[in-house]
Specification:
- The chain has about 200 residues and is mostly helical.
- The protein has one domain.
- The longest helix has 24 residues.
- It is globular, with a radius of gyration of 17 Å.
Length: about 200
């Protein structure tokens, strides 16, 4: 699509809607069905995400879920960046994919917490930004073994890193909004962390 053929609001709306539909593909549920596993919304944390799929004991299914959840954030953003869309439209596409994961129209709006999809979106925005945020996540996960703590720390770091790399602007606002939603979706995990009841990475349901 030619970015100059439509007014910016229409371009952003079309891109966000398309990305939302892509983001609404809940790969935790899809992959689990393909492998004959229980629906991840019925065990563990009840979250349809890679960490909870790992609690089924099937590492392959968890890895595929992680990869595809990240790709559904990365591909739409990378595509519009390659097409030369303006920053506000790119931000709208990234938010659309992320919100689709949180509230997927194809799965009764019962979505995940958005960690992998957010990582994909950030990599699409700028590889250096996504890589830096991913490094924060990996470091915290390796040291403390809590996926939720790693995600929360990476969420706090993401808008700060975006502002550091590229200055304050439209993309900083989009990253900050994703971070705020991700932290909000981890409210139950925060309570469990404070109570010492949070499950560690790889712990079976």
């Amino acid at each position: 699509m030619n970015p100059n053929a439509l007014p910016l609001p229409a371009l952003a709306a079309i891109g966000a809607l398309a990305a939302y539909l892509i983001g609404s593909l809940s790969f935790a549920v899809i992959v689990s069905r393909l492998f004959g596993l229980d629906d991840p919304r019925t065990y563990g944390s009840g979250n349809p995400g890679a960490t909870n799929v790992l609690r089924s004991g099937h590492k392959g299914a968890a890895i595929l879920t992680l990869v595809f959840d990240a790709l559904k954030g990365y591909v739409p953003v990378a595509a519009v960046v390659a097409l030369g869309w303006p920053a506000p439209a790119v931000a709208a596409v990234g938010l659309g994919a992320f919100i689709g994961h949180l509230w997927p129209v194809f799965f009764r709006f019962e979505g995940g917490k958005g960690v992998a999809t957010a990582a994909g979106v950030l990599l699409g925005f700028a590889p250096a930004l996504g890589g830096a945020v991913l490094l924060v996540w990996l470091t915290m996960a390796a040291v403390f073994r809590y996926s939720s703590l790693a995600a929360l720390t990476a969420s706090l770091a993401a808008p700060l890193l975006e502002a550091w790399f590229h200055g304050l602007g439209m993309m900083t606002g989009a990253v900050a909004l994703m971070s705020a939603l991700l932290i909000w979706r981890h409210a139950a995990n925060i309570r469990k962390l404070l109570a010492g009841q949070e499950s560690k990475i790889g712990q079976k349901a």
